[in-house]
């Protein structure tokens, strides 16, 4: 794809890290990668967070520049918080909109995710397009009972004040934040237009080094609406249902607890 010879390859689970004959380190991912490639380009266009450069992509293969290894620091976390605020402020055409050159049918991890622009409120879109599809699949997986579904569907949610669609990474758990000597990078996006608090809630879901520093720097750069911490459970409901769909186990219980 790049017209170079691969001189060494190291498997890193779903991807390969390869050294090319010109000395460059690249990451190669195979599968249905069109949405991810479009997402990386859309995030890069904001000139805010660091994302690996897309070096080549087709229907089945994505090649990106490799991120050098490093460690988290207080200073890097502050910079990441500010850059994430700038990414979100770059905006999106609508809630649910895909990247401009990306397909509507995308992925979050190994779960399918549909991106259709919505002209109504964020909460209406979120419940219809991000909660309901995964409620059904979590029941099919055996991770939720019909009583659990009834509890979630009957819950009353306060989404906070209206906000414009933000440009989201969309799958911003700690494993998709890489720390390098230059600072934080983000990988493996499920990019779409959504609510900025969703990215922040996902950072908190599985823990992130210096999370409070990231959040404080974000809030200083782009103040969050009052009560945002009370809405974390609402925004975590979507990724928890995705995990319940993929892995079962206690993720269904965690989704019900988030609603409580």
UniProtKB/TrEMBL annotation:
Pfam families: Fructosamin_kin
Gene3D superfamilies the record matches: 1.20.1270.240, Phosphorylase Kinase, domain 1, Transferase(Phosphotransferase) domain 1
Keyword Ligase recorded: no
Keyword tags: Kinase, Transferase
InterPro entries: Fructo-/Ketosamine-3-kinase, Kinase-like_dom_sf
GO molecular function list: kinase activity
PANTHER family in the record: FRUCTOSAMINE 3 KINASE-RELATED PROTEIN, PROTEIN-RIBULOSAMINE 3-KINASE
Family: Belongs to the fructosamine kinase family.
Protein name stated in the entry: Fructosamine kinase family protein
Organism: Actinomycetospora aurantiaca
């Amino acid at each position: 794809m790049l017209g170079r010879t691969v001189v060494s390859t190291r498997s890193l689970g779903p991807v390969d890290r390869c050294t090319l004959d010109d000395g460059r380190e690249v990451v190669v991912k195979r599968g249905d990668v069109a949405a991810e490639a479009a997402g990386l380009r859309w995030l890069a266009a904001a000139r805010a967070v660091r994302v690996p450069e897309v070096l080549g992509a087709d229907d089945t293969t994505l090649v990106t520049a490799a991120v050098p290894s490093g460690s988290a620091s207080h200073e890097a976390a502050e910079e990441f918080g500010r850059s994430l605020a700038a990414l979100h402020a770059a905006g999106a055409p609508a809630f649910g909109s895909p990247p401009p050159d990306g397909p509507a049918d995308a992925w979050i991890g190994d779960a399918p995710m549909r991106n259709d622009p919505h002209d109504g409120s964020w909460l209406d879109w979120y419940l219809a397009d991000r909660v309901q599809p995964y409620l059904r699949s979590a029941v099919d997986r055996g991770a939720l009972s019909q009583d659990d579904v009834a509890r979630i569907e009957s819950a009353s949610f306060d989404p906070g004040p209206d906000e414009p669609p933000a440009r989201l990474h969309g799958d911003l758990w700690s494993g998709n934040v890489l720390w390098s000597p230059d600072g934080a990078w983000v990988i493996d996006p499920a990019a779409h237009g959504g609510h900025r608090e969703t990215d922040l809630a996902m950072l908190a879901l599985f823990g992130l080094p210096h999370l409070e520093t990231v959040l404080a720097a974000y809030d200083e750069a782009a103040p969050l609406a009052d009560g945002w911490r009370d809405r974390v459970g609402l925004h975590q409901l979507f990724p928890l249902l995705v995990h319940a769909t993929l892995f079962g186990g206690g993720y269904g219980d965690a989704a019900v607890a988030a609603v409580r």
